[in-house]
Amino acid sequence: MTWFKQLKFVENPLDIRPSTILIGLDEEEERLKNHIQKGEVCFINGLTGSGKTSLLKKIQEAMKDHEFIYLDAHDLPKNFNLEDELKSKKSIFDKITFKEWPKKPPVIIIDEFQETDRNLVLKIRSKWENPIQKRIKSIIFAQISHHLHNVTDSFKERIGNRTITLSPLDSENLKRMLSARLLKRKRSYADRFADEALNMLIYSSGGNPRRFLEQADLVFDFHYQRFKDINPIIKEGYKINHYAVKEILELNGINCEGFKAKTDVKKKSTGDTFETYFTENEKKVLNFLIQKGPSTYSQIALGIKIKKAMVKRIVQGLKKKNGVKLEGRTDQGYTWNVSPHAKRMTVKI
Hints:
Blueprint: H1 3-6, H2 26-37, E1 41-46, H3 52-62, E2 67-72, H4 82-87, H5 92-96, E3 106-111, H6 118-129, E4 138-143, H7 153-159, E5 163-166, H8 171-181, E6 183-184, E7 187-188, H9 195-205, H10 209-227, H11 242-251, H12 262-270, H13 274-277, H14 280-292, H15 297-304, H16 308-320, E8 324-330, E9 333-338, H17 340-345
Parallel strand pairs: 1-4, 1-5, 2-3, 3-4
Antiparallel strand pairs: 6-7, 8-9
């Protein structure tokens, strides 16, 4: 079992591999479609995780009337033959009608273009430029750098201003992407994150969509591994705050220093401390948990000599103040522990 199976997803919705769920790239998608329809050469560049490969995948699904040939320059075999590759794209109808080339207009996509052999580039160019036997309708180059080093100056001029640069998504589009990925039966599990928790993920990922998804996956996986069948994410209304996100990311070696949550700024400005923020009974419960560690309602009640029903009310109040967290479950019931937020506010009393 995995966290996404528990939430009834067939596959991991936060998988960092290319996806056709694109957010914030509508304009770039339309520009790329237009270049292909016009039979042009187009150059796409952007940082790792900016959506280059996902955009290319989406285009291939959207333009079924074209025959796309995707080449990853990193993995091309030494004996790669362009003509053989073009002919391999013939449909069953093309074969039974003895066509030499595919009927659908071929579009060549070269990913990681900086690794492409110059001789292959020349062959592709010749099959695109040939006025008599135009075997390739359009060419798309994709790479990280915005500098094209392995093409001639004259070919750069042919490309002209047909360059699409993918920039990091802004905060709102990253949130939209997460919401779309985690959508299940008209609701999105992205709402399990409090606003500041999402802001922390955006900060720690540097706005990179791939890192953003990786880190959100860490948070969901942590909850499942810790709680299993009592995973609180399953419950409507549960919120993951930024203290929890910070703790989970740091456990995985991700530095979140420098992030300032609005709630942190507010608490600092109002001068809230352990003494002033919590009631006397809440402080008794917290001090007991600090000394004894994860405990059930009954154990807390026995330790601080307060009725169990009263302890339940105190703990629920502490939950609202982000003072305690659900630690797990034993044969005696749920166990509670001090939250990282409360630990930071702790002073001797």
